Amino acid sequence: MSDGTKEDKLKHIFRIFDCDGNGTISPEELTKIVCHLYCLLPEKDKLTAGTPQELSEKIMREMDKNNDAVVSIDELMSAFFRQEPLTTLLVHKVMQRAATAQSTILMA
C-alpha cells in the first residue's frame, strides 16, 4: 500500500471497509474494522475513544456528512483531507497494519 497517490490509497482502504462491495460503508462494516484495529491504539487514545462501538459511532458521525447512515468514498476522502482526527487515526492504523503484514510476508 506504499505505492500510489493518497487518493489511490484511500480508494483501496475504502474497498477494504466496504465488506459487501455495495459502494458504501455501513455502521456495521465500520464497527468490524474498528474492532479489528482497536488493539493498535495507544492506551491514552483508548481512554478518550471509549469502547470500539463508541469509537465506531464517533467516526461515523465524523465522516457521514449527509447523515444518510452510510459513508461514501467521497465522504471518506473528504474527512481524511479535512484532517478529521478519528478518520485520520483510522486510516493511519489501516496503513500501519498493511505495512506490518507486508514486512511479515517479506520476512517469511
Main attributes of the structure:
108 residues; mainly alpha; single chain; globular; 6 helices
Short description:
This protein is mainly alpha-helical. It has helices at residues 6-17, 27-37, 43-49, 52-63, 73-81, 85-107.
Description of the molecule:
- The protein is an all-alpha fold.
- Helix content is 69%, strand content 0%.
- Helix 2 crosses helix 4 and helix 5 (73-81) crosses helix 6 (85-107).
- The chain is globular and about 30 Å long.
Helix and strand topology:
Blueprint (H helix, E strand, L loop, with lengths): L5 H12 L9 H11 L5 H7 L2 H12 L9 H9 L3 H23 L1
Helix pairs in contact: 2-4, 5-6
Total DSSP E strands: 0
Quaternary structure of the protein: single chain
> If helices are DSSP runs of H or I spanning 4 or more residues, what is the number of helices?
6
Structural class: mainly alpha
Along the chain, the helix and strand elements come as: HHHHHH
Helical percent range?
55-70%
Mean pLDDT: 88
Q: Report the C-alpha radius of gyration, rounded.
A: 14 Å
- Residue fraction in strands: under 5%
Largest sheet: none
Basic shape: globular
- Detail the poorly predicted runs: none
Straight-line distance between termini: 19 Å
